[in-house]
Design brief:
This protein has 417 residues and is of the alpha/beta class. It contains 13 helices and 18 strands. Helix content is 36%, strand content 18%.
């Protein structure tokens, strides 16, 4: 969008933001870290394709088939350009970031993969961190159990930063997989330093970028990672579509994760050969309309400007941090400054369970926040708390909504006084 960042103009593109909730409450949506809302442009693009162009991709020899295939592959081009992928073929569509992470984990210790970079067994090491989403913990636990490898992790400091003081990465490390930005703390991790240590050890690096790609300019070719996973539903797109980017030589070496139609080159009764990447990893009918919706979301974000979105969220985060500090008995979990952090703020209120906080904010003020351990239970255990309340901001949020959150939290404290 041309000119200065105009949040009120942007809000008009999101029909749900004008919705009136029961009790004449206006919706205050502060849960984009969980799932973002969708602009009318994305909804209409998906509707129009379903109504006028839908067919399966890569199979039908007719007009609709050609149109659908073209739109699907155009979406791949858009995503590749959005994250700076050196080649469009390095973009693999998955159903979400969890599937992308599992896809990579499947490649290690797989008997069909003899590439030494992917061998995994007793004595080898997998490194993650204590701040990971369960989707970046469980697949690696399963890999360790399957291969006998050792799972290790970086700790987290009291300030919510990655603790790099120890020698966690060693010459036995085969893969390091960390979040680019924490979904609880908002912390943006020092990827360059982690990647440097991994390179020195000969290890590969994977990033869960689900919380960074929607909010900051990201260039995968410059991050220093070998694999990057993210998901559509957190970046104005639909659910059911995710992305794995990986260096082409690694995708070439990796075995297919799923078997079926489209991912094959030729099939005999006793064996098969596989299509080149990315199609090698996209078995069966893919999420066609979802991918096209993601392409429309990319168009929207690029039109708004990722630098402008980042700056807007930075303003919101600074405003929120200052405002929340003034609330008595509120404990911020995570960095208290803007340094290397994004627009996700998690906190506790002394003596009040986050579930009660979330329910009162919703029932009485129409404020949607996330409560619980946010699929990051080990991180909450590290801070000695069962759950937090999380407010997460995006391009359509305003300082007025943060003011509403603060008023709501003061009311919650009065209720439980």
């Amino acid at each position: 969008m041309s000119g200065a960042f105009d949040v009120e103009r942007i809000r008009k593109d999101f029909p749900v933001l004008s919705r009136e909730l029961p009790g004449n409450r206006s919706l205050v949506y502060l849960d984009s870290g969980n799932s973002s809302q969708k602009p009318a442009q994305v909804v209409e693009t998906m509707r129009e394709h379903l109504a006028m162009h839908y067919s399966n991709v890569g199979r039908a020899m007719h007009v609709l088939g050609a149109e659908s295939t073209q739109a699907y592959e155009d979406a791949r081009d858009k995503v590749a350009g959005f994250v700076g992928a050196p080649s469009r073929d390095e973009i693999v569509f998955t159903k979400n970031a969890s599937e992308a992470l599992n896809l990579v984990a499947y490649s290690f210790g797989n008997r069909t993969n003899e590439d030494p970079r992917f061998t995994m067994g007793p004595g080898d090491e997998i490194v993650i961190s204590e701040m990971e989403h369960h989707s970046n913990i469980v697949p690696w636990q399963m890999l360790a159990q399957r291969t006998g490898a050792t799972l290790k992790w970086f700790g987290v400091t009291d300030e919510g930063r990655l603790d790099l003081s120890g020698e966690v990465i060693t010459d036995r490390t085969k893969i390091v997989s960390i979040a680019h930005q924490s979904n609880v703390l908002g912390t943006v991790n020092p990827v360059a330093e982690v990647a440097r240590r991994a390179r020195e050890a000969g290890a590969l690096v994977m990033l869960d970028a689900s919380q960074s790609v929607p909010h900051h300019p990201v260039n995968v070719a410059e991050l220093g990672a070998d694999f990057v996973a993210f998901t559509g539903h957190k970046m104005l797109g639909p659910s059911g579509i995710g992305v794995l980017w990986a260096r082409g030589e690694l995708l070439e070496a990796m075995p297919p994760f799923l078997g079926g139609g489209e991912m094959i080159e030729a099939v005999w009764m006793d064996h098969s050969t596989y299509a080149p990447y990315p199609h090698k990893f996209e078995a069966g009918t893919p999420p066609i309309v979802e991918a096209i919706g993601l392409g429309a979301a990319v168009d929207y974000l690029q039109n708004a400007g990722m630098e402008a979105i980042e700056a807007h969220e930075r303003t919101l985060t600074a405003y929120a941090l200052d405002a929340l500090r003034e609330i008595p008995s509120l404990r911020l979990i995570g960095p208290s400054t803007l340094e290397e952090r994004g627009g996700t703020v998690s906190f506790t209120l002394d003596g009040i369970h986050p579930h009660d906080v979330g329910q009162i904010l919703d029932d009485e003020f129409g404020i949607a926040v996330r409560v619980g351990h946010h699929c990051a239970r080990p991180l909450h255990l590290r801070f000695g708390i069962p759950a937090t309340t999380r407010a997460s901001f995006y391009l359509y949020n305003t300082t007025g909504e943060i003011d509403a959150l603060v008023r709501g939290l003061h009311h919650v404290q009065k209720v439980f006084a």
